[in-house]
C-alpha cells in the first residue's frame, strides 16, 4: 500500500506483513533503509528517475545517503504546490514535455520557477529527464480548457 502518513506508519504496517511504499519522496530514503518500506511511489522519479532508483537500492548506503541529501530540496520543491503543478512545470523547464497546462492548473510563479531552476541546475544534466534547462517566462506557457 502507498503510505503518506510518515515512516512510523510504514514501519508499523511492514511489521504486520503489509507491504508499504512511501508516498513522501523526501522521506522515502529513510523509509526504505530504516523503516523497511518496499520503495516509493514517486513524483521526483519523473524528473530524476536514475537518482530515485539509486536511492531505493540497498547497495552503497553511505554514497546514496549523501545523494539523498543533495536532492532533498528538489523533492521538497516538487511539492510546493499541489501535484502535478510543480512536476509539470519542471518537465516543461527541461523541455521533456510541451509547455501546455490544462486549466485550472497553472505554471508555478516566476519566483517558484527560479527556486526550482537553481535546484535542477545543481543536478547533473545526464540525470534529468529532458534535453535542456531554462527558467521560462510566464508567456512561454499555453493554457487550455
Question: TL;DR of this structure?
Answer:
Strand 1 (2-3), helix 1 (7-15) and strand 2 (21-22) form a beta-alpha-beta unit. The chain has 6 helices and 5 strands. The chain has helices at 7-15, 25-33, 49-56, 61-77, 85-93, 110-121, and strands at 2-3, 21-22, 39-40, 100-102, 142-144.
Proportion of residues in extended strands = 5-15%
Rg, Å, rounded: 16 Å
The spatial strand order of the largest sheet comes to 1-2-3
Distance between the termini: 33 Å
Helix- and strand-based class? mainly alpha
Number of helices: 6
Q: How would you sum up this structure, described in words?
A:
The termini are far apart. The protein has a 3-stranded parallel β-sheet with strand order 1-2-3. Strands 4-5 form a two-stranded parallel sheet. It is mainly alpha-helical. The chain has helices at residues 7-15, 25-33, 49-56, 61-77, 85-93, 110-121; strands at 2-3, 21-22, 39-40, 100-102, 142-144. Helices cover 44% and strands 8% of the residues. It has one domain.
Task: Reconstruct the topology from this structure.
Blueprint: E1 2-3, H1 7-15, E2 21-22, H2 25-33, E3 39-40, H3 49-56, H4 61-77, H5 85-93, E4 100-102, H6 110-121, E5 142-144
Parallel strand pairs: 1-2, 2-3, 4-5
Helix pairs in contact: 2-4, 4-6
Question: Which key phrases capture this entry?
Answer:
two-stranded parallel ribbon, three-stranded parallel beta sheet, globular, 145 residues, 6 helices, mainly alpha
Amino acid at each position: 500500500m502507498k503510505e503518506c502518513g510518515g515512516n512510523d506508519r510504514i514501519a508499523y504496517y511492514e511489521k504486520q506483513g503489509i507491504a508499504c511504499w512511501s508516498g513522501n519522496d523526501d522521506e522515502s530514503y529513510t523509509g526504505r533503509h530504516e523503516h523497511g518500506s518496499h520503495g516509493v511511489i514517486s513524483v521526483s522519479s519523473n524528473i530524476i528517475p536514475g537518482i530515485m532508483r539509486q536511492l531505493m537500492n540497498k547497495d552503497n548506503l553511505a554514497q546514496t545517503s549523501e545523494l539523498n541529501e543533495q536532492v532533498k530540496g528538489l523533492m521538497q520543491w516538487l511539492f510546493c504546490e499541489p501535484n502535478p503543478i510543480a512536476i509539470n512545470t519542471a518537465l516543461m523547464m527541461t523541455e521533456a514535455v510541451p509547455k501546455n497546462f490544462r486549466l485550472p492548473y497553472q505554471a508555478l510563479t516566476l519566483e517558484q520557477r527560479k527556486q526550482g531552476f537553481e535546484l535542477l541546475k545543481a543536478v547533473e544534466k545526464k540525470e534529468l529527464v529532458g534535453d535542456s534547462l531554462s527558467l521560462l517566462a510566464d508567456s512561454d506557457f499555453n493554457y487550455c480548457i
